[in-house]
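ESCALATION

Customer reports they have been waiting on this structure for their group meeting. Please prioritize. Original submission:
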Amino acid sequence: MEILMPEPQIYVERTLAIIKPDVIDKEEEIEDVILQSGFRILQKRKLQLSPEQCSNFYAEQFGKMFFPNLTAYMSSGPIVAMVLARNCAVSYWKEMLGPSNSLRARITHPHSLRALYGTDELRNGLHGSLSISSAEKEIRFIFPEAILEPLPTGQRARDYLNLYVKPTLLAGLTALCKERPADPMIWLADWLIEHNPNKPKLQYHISQ
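Update from on-call: job pushed to the front of the queue and completed.
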């Protein structure tokens, strides 16, 4: 009986994580938790936002009672912003964070990050994007140079690999098997650089 396995999908979702001013001293500890949870940190930046920048970042909260305190809190010291990536990054990071109110989190989600690092409803230690669309918006705000084009999935990914990667890679692996070098990974890396079909061709002009 033939068992059909689902075809792998090349897709990595991104979300924005922020270590807030009051737990900045726990940066390395929190990063270790992030990495051990299967995330990759694609970009990282330490910065201090002005009250105006905080107002723009949290514009959707404008008009709420806690808004002035929120902007004052978030601009009170440096923060660490990170672009995290993994499958279902937005929902997984939200689950790790727990409820926004750290006092409630300690009761309902005692092992969540906000229960462990937060203080109260306002000073909850960490930020996470609420949705994929808000993640894209927030990442562009903190990392304006970031490229957020959607990664290819399914047939598009297979077509891309078949057209641009497999021919050269198969040739390199064939040459590797013939050569059998002591360090195959370094040898293959050098071979791929040397035989890259997209490598720019330099023209040298000899002055007389």
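Sent to customer with the following note: Confidence is low (pLDDT under 50) at residues 202-208.
Escalation resolved.
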